[in-house]
Every structure is written in C-alpha cells, then in structure tokens.
Write a structure and sequence with these properties.
By secondary structure, the protein is of the alpha+beta class. The protein has six helices and nine strands. The N terminus is likely disordered.
Amino acid sequence: MAKKPLFCLALLIVFSLSARFSAAELSFLENLNSEELEMAAVIAACSRPANIAFADPKRSIHSQILLVGTDFDHFDLNDNRQQVVEYCADELEHVLLDIAKDTTNYLGRLELPLTEEERQLFRDYLTPSPLEIGAFVKTITASSSDGWIAAAKLMQLVKDYPGDQTTRPVFFAALARAAGIPTRFAVGFRYFPEPNRWVGWIWNEIWIQEWVAVDPASQQMAPDALLVKLMSTSSLTDLQLRNSNFGIVQLSIRQIDTTAEP
C-alpha cells in the first residue's frame, strides 16, 4: 500500500519541478551551443519525398529502408535498433537497413555516478555543463542511481521545453551529461505522413552498456521504426566536414510492420 503514496509524491515532485522549469530555462538558453544549433537547423532543413504513404509512424515496430546514392564509408549505420542487411557497391551505392523498435529493458544497466575510470573513458560525451544546470538536474535525478530512470525523467522535462527537433536534442544532451550519462547525437531522417516526406532529424544516444537511441523531440525512449540513422557524433559541429553526403541520400520504404496499439 505504501507504493501508491510514494508514486503520487513522485508525481508532485515532477510537477513542481516543471513549474520551476521556465525560470531555469531562461538562464540555460544563453548556454546552448550556437554552432550546434546552426548545424541542427541545416540538418532539419533537409527533406526527401517518400515512396509510399503511412498514416501513423509511431505504430511502426519494424521496417526495411533502402538508402541509395552516396559513399557510405563515413556513415554509422548499425546500432541497437538498426542493422545493415544488404550492401551493393554499384555506380550508385545502396544499403538496405533493417530497423526494429528496441524493446530491451535497460533498467540496472548503468549506475550513477560513474566511476572516475568511466568518466575518463567517456569524457568526450560528458562535456561540462553550467553549474546551475548541474544543480537543477541533481534535484531531478537524486532519487535514483539508475541511469535509465534518470534519462526517462530528463526526457519528461524536455517535453515541457518550448523547443523543436533542433533544440530539444541539444537540450537533452546537456541535461543528461550534467547527470553523468554519456550522451551523443544521432543524425538521420524521420518519416512524416504530412506531407509524406522524410525530414532531417536529430536525436540522442545514451550509453547504457551500449549506445541506445532515445528521441527527445518525439518523446520516445524507444524510437519507432521509421527513424533512420546515418551518423553519430559527440558534437554536431563535427558534422560540418562530412554533411555533404548527407544531403544526397535517397530513402525508399521497402517494408513496414506495425503494432495495433497507437
């Protein structure tokens, strides 16, 4: 019987923190990396027509997507939810990706705080955050030492952030890193039924004994199967020298499997 009051108390704490969020956000906005935001805007401006229409992308649990038309050597196409199943090096290279919504339970995979050895190993993914953000994050994550639970709480905070697909992953990365969770950026395309196009998209990957995709802009701890990763990086500014290939990739949906649940 004690679990229900504790659960209600947790909800009240989250609600009260959300009420304070706008004040904390005002000081934090000045510290967002302007170069990363500029690169995020460039990525978000990219779009491609889709070959078929699909009404509800969030119901997709498995897909096969064909990529055509570029040198894939510098791309990062394999992760916890996406694998290359076919590659052909014709005049126009093509890659067939198999993508599945990850249903793994990641509870207990990452204990916080990290050891000093772990911090050194992931130092590129734990860039220092402003002191006020570090203090703010601690008030949210102090109740649990589990990295997956902490990430979920931070995801909820980002939901209340008045940003978009360019600012929310940058914001989430700063919060997660301040919490001690190694975090990097993933870049690719997300399918939208209106207007039936692939749109340049940025999300995050957190280290939970492996790199695991989370999508703050879509509020998905387990992204659906119509999110296609092309690159990953510790900083979006690192993509400036290699985003030209990103601009010419063509995508074609070959298969979609769905769940009955919304």
